[in-house]
């Protein structure tokens, strides 16, 4: 009781089991620097309205710096009764500077304190994640530029569809990540609004200058409703959802590469550094890097769902259910950070087997080009599609490739065929037809590289 900051009205001690369950210091100590930063700024506000004199203010700042040094150097001693980072820092501050420490919390509550700390923390971590995404996209751009001449099968329904440039495939994943990076702006907007000064739920009764406080902490505005401010974890949900979506994108990239890396495809070879072996089968090289990305990608969404379920049933303002927000936010950040790093390493180091990509192509993948050939001879597309289908079926019956059909055989299907059909049996020619913006021709892919590179420069 007496050892607790809130122990005044209690006459019996807390159950050991509840005390254990209620503790969050082992998790929220991650916020020690933000908590101290917030406290120093808050002390300044209190000094400017004479709730602290200059001496007390200086002593609090000095004491908080000392507490921070202890955390920085790993010498901070967590004691029984240190429920969370806020109470631990305040307890230690009092041990170091004595009485002035007891004036710091006036008008403030852990309810506005914790959410301010979390926003400060998330702001710097968003920066880290955005750098990691930029690194991954840069790795993709670099490969796309140097390997632009490699043509491989493109798939729909995992069935061979049309030839595409390897770079076009790789950039398809880069674009998804670029849009993720753009969408991060909405989280940045959320975390830029300062909740401090909302008290437990009703606001701050001492006329502190919240705008000045926000400015000193680097926020651009302040929350407009204290009850909303202490209850609001939408910025956490936004962040968790955002991470889940990046996880989905990384997972799809991983899934493609797992398939491309099998012996059946072998378009790529995952580097030893990003593979693992089997304890039983000596020949195995497994793409665990990619499987972990795929697995963790799914668990991110699990964490997002679970936190939304926590929020759903809560009445207004702060409820202790919210304490789990930090564990989810920290672990989601750490998971995404790790898989982004592994994705960049895997993409940078993998070997592209251009001969296998070429072998994966077959002339049947040019059946669409046969239809387009006829369209250019003024055959309506539906009819041209039907004729091209007949060409495929006839070649199949004759057990030969469609490219080996003679002009006479083709003419027996449609009179529109001529000897110039020969020029379509060329994969390079096929991909070069797609000159449109967003297509797979060389110029279109170079254009994508140019736009993405410009975007990288702006980051
Ligand atoms: N450790 C708490 C949390 O992280 C801080 C807020 C506690 N507020 C309260 N009124 N019990 O959610």
Automatic annotation (TrEMBL):
Annotated ranges, domain Argininosuccinate lyase C-terminal: 365-432
Domain Fumarate lyase N-terminal as annotated: residue spans: 8-302
Family under the similarity heading: Belongs to the metallo-dependent hydrolases superfamily. Allantoinase family. Belongs to the lyase 1 family. Argininosuccinate lyase subfamily.
SUBUNIT field: Homotetramer.
Protein name: allantoinase
Lineage: Eukaryota, Metazoa, Ecdysozoa, Arthropoda, Hexapoda
């Amino acid at each position: 009781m007496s050892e607790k900051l809130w122990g005044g009205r209690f006459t019996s001690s807390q159950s050991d089991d509840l005390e254990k369950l209620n503790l969050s210091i082992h998790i929220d100590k991650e916020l020690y620097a933000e908590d101290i930063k917030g406290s120093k700024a808050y002390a300044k506000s209190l000094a400017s309205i004479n709730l602290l004199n200059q001496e007390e203010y200086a002593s609090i700042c000095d004491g908080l710096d000392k507490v921070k040094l202890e955390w920085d150097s790993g010498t901070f001693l967590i004691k029984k009764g240190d429920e969370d980072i806020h109470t631990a820092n305040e307890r230690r501050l009092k041990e170091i500077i004595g009485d002035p420490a007891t004036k710091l919390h006036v008008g403030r509550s852990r309810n506005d304190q914790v959410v301010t700390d979390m926003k400060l923390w998330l702001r710097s971590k968003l920066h880290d994640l955005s750098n990691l995404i930029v690194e991954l996209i840069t790795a993709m751009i670099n490969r796309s530029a140097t390997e632009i001449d490699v043509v491989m099968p493109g798939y729909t329904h995992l069935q061979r569809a049309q030839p595409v440039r390897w770079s076009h495939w790789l950039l398809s994943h880069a674009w998804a990540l670029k849009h993720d990076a753009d969408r991060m702006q909405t989280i940045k907007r959320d975390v830029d609004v300062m909740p401090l000064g909302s008290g437990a739920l009703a606001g701050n009764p001492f006329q502190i200058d919240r705008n000045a406080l926000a400015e000193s902490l680097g926020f651009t505005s302040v929350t407009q409703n204290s009850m909303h401010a202490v209850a609001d974890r939408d910025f956490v949900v936004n962040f968790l959802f955002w991470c889940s979506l990046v996880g989905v994108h990384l997972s799809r990239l991983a899934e493609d590469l797992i398939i491309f890396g099998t012996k059946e495809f072998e378009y790529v070879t995952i580097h030893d550094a990003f593979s693992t072996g089997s304890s039983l089968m000596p020949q195995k090289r497994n793409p665990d890097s990619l499987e972990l990305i795929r697995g963790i990608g799914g668990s991110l969404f699990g964490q997002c769902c679970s936190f939304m379920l926590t929020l759903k049933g809560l009445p207004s303002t702060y409820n202790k259910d919210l304490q789990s927000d930090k564990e989810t936010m920290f672990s989601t950040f750490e998971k995404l950070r790790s898989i982004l790093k592994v994705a960049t390493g895997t993409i940078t180091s993998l070997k592209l087997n251009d001969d296998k990509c070429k072998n994966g192509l077959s002339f049947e993948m040019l059946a669409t080009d046969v239809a387009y050939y006829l369209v250019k001879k003024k055959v309506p597309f539906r009819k041209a599609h039907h004729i091209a289908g007949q060409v495929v079926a006839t070649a199949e019956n004759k057990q030969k490739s469609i490219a080996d059909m003679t002009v006479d055989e083709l003419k027996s299907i449609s009179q529109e065929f001529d000897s110039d059909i020969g020029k379509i049996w060329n994969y390079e020619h096929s991909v070069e037809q797609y000159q449109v913006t967003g297509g797979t021709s060389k110029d279109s892919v170079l254009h994508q590289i140019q736009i993405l590179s410009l975007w990288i420069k702006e980051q």
